[in-house]
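Here is one chain, start to finish.
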Amino acid sequence: MAYLTLQGINKIYPNGFHAVHNFNLEIEKGEFIVFVGSSGCGKSTTLRMIAGLENISSGDFLINGERANEKGPRERGIAMVFQSYALYPHMTVYDNLAFGLTLEGVDDDVIEDRVNKTAKILGLTDYLDRFPRALSGGQRQRVAVGRAIIRKVEIFLMDEPLSNLDAKQRVTMRSEITQIHRETGATTIYVTHDQTEAMTMADRIVVMKLGYIQQVGTPYDLYFNPANLFVAGFIGEPPMNFIESTVNDGKLNINDNIVDLVAIADKEVIDKYEHEEVVLGFRPEAVKLVGKGEVRNAFTFNCTVELTELLGDNTNVYVDIRGVKAILKVEPHDSPAIDSKLQFAVPFESIYLFDKATEKRIKLRNS
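Its structure:
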């Protein structure tokens, strides 16, 4: 039996807005689960229902097999880290960390021991006498995390905890939160709109859109086996390139660039989509520049370079495939000149096809 179970969870507000639709998920003890999606997709609302901060309109939430819908936040054995830190400004770091334990009536010597151990884990030992206003954003976030882990609960909930930090601080805190999870072994549910956070931290990712689950899987599964157009476009940076076309005689004609589907798909698949609209997808990093080494078993495309972005370890090349826009990720020393003509190849195994009507990924091979 799963440790946390969400069965047919719905959230409908009094005004009739249906924020979360039929949410089903089983979470094993000790897993690090990330809810990811754009703003308004229902991820934070789902987290708040798990925390007991929002009522569940219908469905069942079980903790270790026991229904928890009617239990309050404290009864659920949950600690939550908010986006806003939610620190008490008139309390020192020590008192902020100790506050929850004090409310529970824990002995002072035990509190002191736990505060010191938690501060050491988070690198806050030298800041215990300071007030929140004297801390940086990253240090405040550490205090917020520390206030959660010091209670030694079995479930941590984190609602976009890094969104107020700068890029360098986010990278540092990502690794620190992941390490804390390993040390505590607590079941963690983490909400973010940042797919990089999701990919680098999660055991499994739940991708959401407009209140619906789109796909649940490991970072590897979501990257290499996206279930639909939304997941394929959301996971990966830069996002997957999409080109719309119609299957005619088993081929796609993308502005005189021919994609012969027989090279990548079984005949029954090709026949099924004859005269149907599909979406071809490929990731920017999958491309190979023609003339920069041997290219075999690949489709080639002719394009014009519109813009380049040198990022140090690679260059993003924005191209026009005779009216269709795409992004290529190439080696920095291969950066082409703007307005130059370019030919690139996409290996057969890196091509994705999606049904334009349903937006679902098309399985190309039956075996």
